[in-house]
Design goal:
Shape: globular
Distance between the termini: 17 Å
Number of domains: 1
Radius of gyration: 16 Å
Bound molecules: cytidine-5'-monophosphate
Order of helices and strands: EHEHHEEEHHEHEHHEH
CATH architecture: 3-Layer(aba) Sandwich
Structural class: alpha/beta
CATH class: Alpha Beta
Largest sheet: 5 strands, parallel
CATH topology: Rossmann fold
CATH superfamily: P-loop containing nucleotide triphosphate hydrolases
């Protein structure tokens, strides 16, 4: 297996941006595992699949034609990078995240990436379940309000009509579910370093992490 840096943490902590930039600086591959859960969610919503039918979700995930070129998500040849960030997809993603069979498929997929490349990967379970032997593990977080503000700004910039309160409510519900789910709950691995990014710019966070990665034994 190649070297793996894991970045886990709650919704809106800026994990994707930080992980993508860190991967770029290191010359490693970036793995956005949230995008994988989101692509399965989008496919299920579009295909009218019953989100509570684990067997149907498993079949859907097994036959999925999806790929993740750097910074993109492609489903059946269509660039769905924007569509998977839609509020409806975000809300429905919990059904996919709770489905053990789908998780198994996505975990196998994630590990396969690290067979061929050094990776910076981000998600909820990367340091705990998927890559327990990772080279370096981080749990990136920020205050609840700052995370909600960041996500709200992003959504408004993309033209979505959503209030800060709605983003905060959705974020609380999602974090609570992610942290309490029976399989692969979101938590910091025992050997992960927690990084609180409240008040820090993206560049500050990337600089901090790169120093830590490069100084790792
Ligand atoms: O990180 P992002 O907001 O894109 O993730 C969407 C959802 O996918 C999360 O709320 C979580 O339920 C699920 N997820 C997960 N495990 C991961 C990454 C994401 O369960 N490794």
């Amino acid at each position: 297996m190649h070297r793996v840096v894991t970045i886990d943490g709650p919704a809106g902590a800026g994990k994707s941006t930080v992980a993508r930039l860190l991967a770029g600086r290191l010359g490693w591959r970036f793995l956005d595992t949230g995008a994988m859960y989101r692509v399965v969610t989008l496919a299920a919503l579009r295909g009218g699949v019953d989100l509570e039918d684990a067997g149907a979700l498993d079949r859907l995930a097994g036959g999925l034609d999806a790929s993740f070129p750097p910074g993109l998500a492609v489903l059946n040849g269509e660039d769905v990078s924007a569509a998977i960030r839609d509020v409806a997809v975000t809300r429905a993603s919990r059904f996919i995240a709770d489905c053990a069979a789908v998780r198994d498929r996505l975990v196998a997929w994630q590990r396969a990436f690290a067979e061929s490349d050094d990776v910076v990967t981000e998600g909820r379970d990367q340091g705990t379940i998927v890559f327990p032997d990772a080279f370096r593990k981080f749990f990136v977080t920020a205050s609840e309000v700052e995370r909600a503000r960041r996500r709200h700004r992003e959504l408004v910039a993309k033209g979505q009509d959503v209030t800060l309160d709605a983003v905060l409510d959705d974020q609380r519900a999602r974090d609570a579910r992610d942290a309490s789910r029976a399989i692969a709950p979101m938590r910091a691995a025992d050997d992960a370093e927690t990084v609180d990014t409240t008040g820090l710019s993206i560049d500050d966070v990337v600089d901090l992490l790169i120093r830590k990665v490069l100084s790792a034994p």
